[in-house]
Amino acid sequence: MSELMVFDEVREAIVMSGGEEIQKCMQCGVCAGSCPWGRMEEKSEFNVRSMFHMGRLGYDGYESDDFLFACTTCNQCAVRCPRGIKIPEVVRSMRSVIAETGGIPKNLKAVIGSINSQGNPWSQERSERAAWMKDMEVPEYTPDKEYLLFVCCTSAYDGRSQKVAKSVVELLKAAGVSFGVIGVEEQCCGESVRKIGAEEEFTKLAEYNIDLYNKKGVKKIITTSPHCYYTFKNEYPEFGGEFEVYHYTQLLDELLAQGKLKLSKPVNGKVVYHEPCYLGRHSKAFDAPRNLMGAVPELQLVEFDGNKDNSLCCSGGGARIWMETKAGQRFSDVKVKEAAEKEAQVIATACPYCIVMLEDSLKNLNKDDVMTVKDISEILKESL
Amino acid sequence: MKIVVLMKQVFDTEAKISLDGNKINKQGVSLVMNPYDEYAVELGLRIKEKFKGEVTVVSVGGPEVQDALRQALAMGADKAVLVDPGADEIDEYTTATILAKAIGGLEYNILLGGFKAIDDGSCQVCGRVAEILGVPVVNMVTQAEVEEDKAVVTCDIDGGSAVIEVKLPAMLTAQKGEIEPRYPSMKGIMQAKKKPMQKIGLGDIGLDAAQAAPKVKALSYSLPAARAAGKLVPGEPAEAAKELARLLREEAKVI
Amino acid sequence: MAKGIWVFTEQRDGEIKKVTYELLSAGRKVADSLGEELCAVLLGKGVSGLEGKLGEYGADKVYTVDSEALENYTTDAYTNILADLAKEHQPTAILLACSASGRDVAAQVAQRLGTGLMTDCTDMALEDGQLVFTRPVYAGKAIVKAACPEARPVMATIRPNVLAADAPQAGRAAQAVPVGGNTGDIRQVIKDIVKQISTRPELTEADIIVSGGRGIKGPENFALLEELADVLGAAVGASRAAVDAGWKSHSFQVGQTGKTVSPVLYIACGISGAIQHLAGMSSSKCIVAVNKDPEANIFKVADYGIVGDLFDVVPLLKEELKKLLA
Ligand code: SF4
Ligand code: SF4
Prior knowledge:
The complex is a heterotrimer of chains A (384), B (255) and C (326).
Chain A: H1 2-19, H2 30-34, H3 48-57, H4 87-99, H5 106-118, E1 147-150, H6 153-157, H7 159-174, E2 179-180, H8 191-196, H9 199-216, E3 220-223, H10 226-235, E4 244-247, H11 248-257, E5 270-273, H12 287-294, E6 300-303, H13 331-341, E7 346-349, H14 352-364, E8 372-375, H15 376-383
Parallel strand pairs in A: 1-2, 1-3, 3-4, 5-6, 5-7, 7-8
Chain B: E1 2-7, E2 9-11, E3 19-20, E4 23-24, E5 31-33, H1 35-51, E6 54-60, H2 66-75, E7 79-84, H3 92-104, E8 110-114, H4 125-133, E9 137-146, E10 150-157, E11 160-167, E12 170-174, H5 186-192, E13 197-201, E14 217-222, E15 231-232, H6 237-251
Parallel strand pairs in B: 1-6, 1-8, 6-7, 7-13, 8-12, 9-12
Antiparallel strand pairs in B: 2-5, 3-4, 9-10, 10-11
Chain C: E1 5-8, E2 11-12, E3 15-16, H1 18-34, E4 38-44, H2 51-56, E5 61-66, H3 75-89, E6 93-97, H4 100-112, E7 117-121, E8 123-127, E9 130-137, E10 142-147, E11 154-158, E12 175-178, E13 189-195, E14 208-212, H5 222-232, E15 235-238, H6 240-244, E16 265-269, H7 275-281, E17 286-291, H8 298-301, E18 304-307, H9 310-325
Parallel strand pairs in C: 1-4, 1-6, 4-5, 5-12, 6-11, 7-11, 14-15, 14-16, 16-17, 17-18
Antiparallel strand pairs in C: 2-3, 8-9, 9-10
The structure holds iron/sulfur cluster (2 copies).
């Protein structure tokens, strides 16, 4: 009797945390069949269909690093689910039930701790957030500026990714955009902690940022990362944050069409475009990146076999970037191998997480002497 | 088998420490179960599973500590007791006096705790509690074979490890070892909501503040000097290596 | 009235550990300022005869308990004897080494004597006639100065290598006071002791870590880092790249997707400094980087950097450190 009550309560708890769609699932298995975890060389125990089954019935056994926390929230399954279930949302709510009680993977605890104390997930000093702009002129955000440029924590702190932030700044300047950066007062957008399931921390961040932006008079935001873009656009409104949000590729695409961004210098070589899940499948911004690269003289753009809605994730989303994925199960390895087969010299992408994952794979597969990973902004900058 | 686990809630390892006057600022940090105590809870649960026992987690602190206690309950502990010391300035003597008094009123065959807490790292509360209760203590336990009336444990000692046998009841403090603490399960979390969590004050265990008054007084807190800008040690490898060794000893004072 | 500064001798297999001399040297100064005597407490089997050494480092008196039952450290035996001695002689302070056994016995004795204990201290000073101890807390992210104003004895465990040992005065003798000592009922029964030949500490526990990355070029070259680690008593770590290459197992991986560490000294060899690595070690107190590439990210967080080939630098550094630590 008491066991049965527990069963119901688990489902109720998931529903209460925003996973009500778990009840719509008909267990058809399309999701698990679409999930990249099932397509890797090395078998993984993760199966999203059975996780939903266990969650609904209140069974134990999926609360581990490589099950509940395996999902990269890439949305591949959701675009195919016949019931139209927002699967990553259900996963998030299932995580949040666990996270509330401290049962999250150790590495992710460090991420949350860092968010709380430093305002970024990388355990880096809050006061160093603006260090990336040390040797360049970056306008400060003031109310007369049209856009706030929000630089993702990764691009603010990671030496590699700082180059992306700088390229975006140069492009915006070249196109005559009125923009500015806030800097040290900013905190993480909260995308990562929400995906971990740490709702309380996410709420704190969202409220803090919205308040900061409102005080500064921000109306429009440009992001360097698709994850920040997705969060500002889709998750801040429920906290009263109504901003017009652009991923930088979207704005640059408009500017290109208006003739304000001029790409004149040729960039040689074969470039394959890796679609960031949160720009592509989640936000349907398929054209902007392709238009931009297509406008670069001489650049030869090729596609992965799976692209747009069928693009394979890099495996860095859903907080997986902070967790270890076994060799043989890394989606980014598969991507690098395909890019090598296609004899691409550059893998272009537009997300700081994708860059971290892809560059790691490039090194591990010893392909870093024949290929590089570039952010689209870095390619466009060369073409200015 | 009645198992009692002593638990502490601490700042997580990522916490940025700042001062609030002459005190540590408690704002803006994540509070977690002391990682060594997670090992103790895990050890307790394994003993419970072997003997069909019961695990009680006991802690001293304010209402915020309930979160960490609830984690232990969700992992599988059966009961929690939280004693509010009713004071801010406490030391290990205070904590041990309170814990021993609270545990003294419980039935127990084995007492467990983390061998140290990652905040003050003082490694003495469990030992003190054992001393008050008159039970033997073995510290830094990495493995434990528990039987009805005794435990055979492997523990770290200076320069190696030892296998030690103690009669129960005994206090064992956990060092990180082969056992990995489990995560709470969804079902465990639901069940935890119904498990008893007793919140009591000093009066409830027959103590007055004077009996538990601290012996040690913190005079002042400070933060270490901010990191100076890094320097490159120049010269040929031989020269640079020599200079680096000197700097590490004389300037950084780390070796 | 409490009288006397006591130092609990840290000895293993009849060999006195250096930390004891450090405690005696510091204790000597305190004892002189207070006009009290400095006593050492020496427990063990076959330890009679070591008193002279303790005298040379400043002890006025040595209470020795030489007994079969004290051959190996046990909590109960050592606690019973030290607590009895302290009850009888009422010292002002007892200083111990912050070692596994020092910490262990200190907690038991402090409780039995109903006094305060400050552990893991890095400094000790007399301020207005009061002994004040400095101890790092929150993994060294804060420092507290603390005292034990009323209860006696004041007890503290002090880290090895933080206080200076003075030069011994040859011929300076201490009064040897052999004591019977009652070990009482020893409830911890030792079944086995395993001595570690190489005591390389566990990664997350280590004070010093020597770590290697892709620049190490192959698994065989980790031997270079291991040799350096052994000179320092350090643990060995690896970056994700080195682990991925199969040169070290995942348990060695330092970084956000591996182990988060914050040692006192972190020596990164051939590690470029990817953000995941930095996130897992940048709270280390002192960071040293050796890398060929002057642009490597690791130099951004390093306190000391050498731009050079680690295959040249690391062996030389090992030799230099060996000389210094000899
Ligand atoms: S595809 Fe949708 S309906 Fe089918 S099992 Fe997955 S979640 Fe359920
Ligand atoms: S979101 Fe992606 S990783 Fe998660 S279950 Fe769906 S397909 Fe798999």
